[in-house]
Amino acid sequence: MREYLKFYIDGQWVDPVSPKTAEVINPATEAVSGTISLGSAADVDKAVAAARKAFSSWSQTTRAQRLDLLGAIQAEYAKRQTELGDAIMEEMGAPSSLAHGFHVGLGAGHLQTAIEVLKDFQFDEARGATLIAKEPIGVCGLITPWNWPMNQTCVKIFPALATGNTMILKPPQLAPYSAHILAEILDAAGVPAGVFNMIQGSGSVIGTALSTHEDVDMISFTGSEPVGVQIQKDAATTIKRVGLELGGKSAFIVLDDPALADSVAGATGGMMGNSGQTCSAGSRLLVPHARMDEAIAAAKAAADAVTVGDPKGNAAMGPVVSKAQYNVIQDYIQKGLDEGATLIAGGLGRPDGLDKGWFVKPTVFVGTNDMVIAREEIFGPVLVIIGYDDVDHAVEIANDTNFGLAGYVNGQDLDQVRAVARRMRTGWISMNGGFDFHAPFGGYKRSGNGREWGDYGFHEYLEIKSLLGYA
Ligand code: TAP
After folding, report:
1. What is its EC number (predicted)?
2. In CATH, what class is 2-246+447-467?
């Protein structure tokens, strides 16, 4: 049993102002795996005061000093990767290979990227007699979700640190362990007191206290659209900057060529990764009508091949994060059946032999883009295949959504792949599996604003000052 009852404030592990706790449930077993403290607005006030005090010195540190600290964090992070992977497995149910591999690797990747970017980042830009200086915003509130715990925390913390900001992290109640370990890593690496603070607790208490706080200058939020809207409203009275990374309903366009079956299999397997709990998941698979039979066969084979089970074993897919999330997904599967989508793999209920734990069957429907299962984010292992007539039609379907986070295009004709990708209205598009830690990540439309990852991620945490007549 884990007991993570202290918060990290002003360089110390401290008790909450008013003791209140919550149990954390292991989604694979439904058993209690540990206890965390739930903070209050009084804890936020303490952390904000510490971050404000630390800002005056941290914001003045040199590039070399910040690089030294990030290097020390990297060494500590490397020592504790196994522990981090174990925690992620336990808190949100990612299978061992994924938790210890990509989950922990994403955090390490953002740290390495922050170091690489910081080495050359132009904080000062001369334009004739004018100097444009990029300066840290100040005290930042970082509010993160449970689905990729290390990705979500590290993609905010390291750019914020590298640009000279101080911060308060509010991790999700559903995945608090890895964030606690990350705070220990930062502490061990020697982050100066008050520069990084971490308070566990509920979003409606800690998140709201940060968003409305007079002395917090910026909120970076990743999570659901309704909470993003609420944070914008809460932050409005203090005119603080708000960065939002929200949901998606991303299209995966497979072009009509000999590799279609392989692309469909890859897209289906990708959708089931992390139990479909990925904001950028390619949850609408667009294939040519003329090749639908082939696509269905490939998708069914790929979905049926996904092993589901105990995260500690060799299964490719673990449970979804919670009972509530399980129920939401079951409701969507029922909705798909009710609205006449054709179920070709998976379906309602748990996979055979799994009576405990929030396990969902890898599910594939064939449907149309007007169906609820094609319009709303399910955040579970549910894929909808939609047929298109020609490439123009594929682009039209892909863009016919309120979201605009990610997109995928697979095909052998690179000119055509590029042309299709350019017509898609989303912030991040992977062509034939492309991936890059330095590429900006963020959404068009209701998927959010701002961009994280790489040097664009630095700009999220910078004010711009024009110094006229400087030269
Ligand atoms: P949310 O319910 O939005 O929670 C995200 C975080 O916000 C949690 O830490 C939560 O605290 C906190 N929060 C809740 N209410 C708040 C409030 N009123 N003010 C401030 N903070 C508040 O999302 P989730 O269920 O964790 O994640 C699933 C959703 O996030 C999906 O829609 C998914 O698409 C989206 N998501 C998007 C991305 C990107 S990169 N665009 C990445 C991951 C997830 P608690 O501890 O109380 O939950």
Report:
1. 1.2.1.3
2. alpha beta
